[in-house]
Amino acid sequence: MKYSGWNILKQALTGKKEWAPVWHKPEPKSHYETIVIGGGGHGLATAYYLTTEYGMKNIAVLEKSHLGSGNVGRNTTIIRSNYLLPGNEPFYELSMKLWENLEQTLNYNAMVSQRGVVNLFHSDAQRDSFVRRGNAMCIAGADAVLLDERGIRNLCPFLDYENSRFPIKGGLLQPRGGTVRHDAVAWGYARGSDSLGVDIIENCEVTGFIIKEGRCVGVETARGNISANKIAVCVAGSSGRLMGKAGIRLPIESHVLQAFVSEGLKPILPNVITFGAGHFYISQSDKGGLVFGGDIDGYNTYAQRGNLPIVEDVCAAGVAIMPMIGRSRLLRMWGGLVDMSMDGSPFIDKTRIEGLYFNGGWCYGGFKATPASGFCYAHLLAKDEPHPVAAEFRLDRFKRGHMIDEKGAGAQPNLH
Amino acid sequence: MIINHPLLGPRDASEFIYLGDASLIDRPDWNSENAAQQFYEYLYLRDNPAGTIRELWFHEYGDRSWLVVTRNTLTHEIVNVELARDIDREEKHSR
Asked: Per the CB < 8 Å rule, is B44 touching A342?
C-alpha cells in the first residue's frame, strides 16, 4: 500500500483493515540469480537498487538474525559527505544525493533531517586543512561553508569558547549533512525490495560457501543449501569471519565502536557537532536524547561491547567542548562491530573467486554510505565492473600502493 | 580488560597500546624472491579470528615491554600473557 496522508485518513475511517506487515517472511527457494548475504542497510539497499536500477530479478537477501539487527540499528545516525580525497568524496556525495530523495523514492518516512554538520577547528593549521577539505567538497559538487568564531557563536552559542587548551576558532559546516532515523532506513529498503519481489529471509545464517572449480555457486545456510549465480557478501563487522569460510584473508580487523545516548532533554543542539581536537561527535535525536560517540576501543573483538576507558575518553571530550552536558545522565550505551580496514576506507569489489563479491571495510562510517554502497554494489553485481564513484574501493589497492588514507594516519586499523 | 603482566602483575588495558596480530613478530625476509608479496601479506592481510587470537600489546604507560596476549575476541577473556622477547628468543632458538 502506498503511504500517504489520504491513506492514513482512509484507514482510520475504515477500521484499519488494510495495514499489513511491510515485508513477507518467505521460505528460501533452492536457487536464486543473486544472493545478498546480510540483511542490514547496505544489503537491503543493494537488493533494492539491483531491482529498480538494474532490472535484476530473482534476488534473495539472507540475514542471520532479524532484519536490521546489526550496525544499521546501532549507529549514531549521522549523514554527511565531507571527505577530502578524490577516491572518497564523489562516492559520499552520491550517497548524500540519494539520501535527499530517499523518502520520496521509497515512499517511507526515514526522518531525513538536513540539520547541518559542523566540524570545529581549534588552530590555524587545522583551519587551513579544513579550507582545503571544503574546497575538495565543492569540487565534487557537495556544499561547504567555512565559519569563523562569530559564525559558530551564532549557530552554537553554548560551546566552551573560553577553553584555553583548545579554543574554538571556527568550523567547517556542511548544511546538507544531518541525521536520519536509522532503523527506518532498513525498514524502508526492506519494504521497497519486498514489494518488488525480493525474498528477504531472516534467521538464515550462512555457514559456508559452495565453491566448485574456483567458482562460487551457492551457500550453505542454517536453512539448507541455496545455489545462485552471484553471491554478494555484505556483512561489515563480521566480514573476516564470513570470508574466512571462503578461504579469503582481508585487509580488515573487526573492532568495536561504542555509542551513547543521554536522557531526553529539551531541544538544545541545532545540528551535528564534531570536536576537532579529540574524537567526539554529537547530535540530538527528535526524542531529545543526546546521541554521541568517539573513538573505537582499538583492539580486535567480536563481542559487541566495549570497555570503560573509552567511555571516559568520549565523555571527557564531550565535556571539553560542551560543559553543560556534564549534568545530563547517560541513558544507554552499546557497542557495534566495525570492519576496520588498513587505510580507513571501504571495499566494493569482486574477489578472486568467480561469482563471489565483497562489500565491507566501512570502518565506523558505514551508515552515511548506505544508499551509495547499495547503488554501487548493485552496479558491480549487474555489470561486473565498478561504478565510477566506487572505482577506488578495490581489495588489491594495498598491493598496488593506492591506499585511500583520508587522514594520512598509517597502515593500522586502530589509527583511523 | 586487565592484562596480567608477567613482570608487573595485573595492569589495566588502558596502560597499553595495541598493535594487532602477533604474527607481526615474524617479519618476512626482505631478500627472498617474492619479498614484495610476502610483505604485502605481512603488513595488510589479517586472519581476524572470532575466538582465540594472539596479539601484541605495548606497555606504553608502564615498563615499555612488548607482550603477547592470548585473548578470546568473543568474550574478551585473557588466557595467557607472555613477554614478546621470550617468544622471539624461543623461536630463533628452535630454528
From this structure: yes
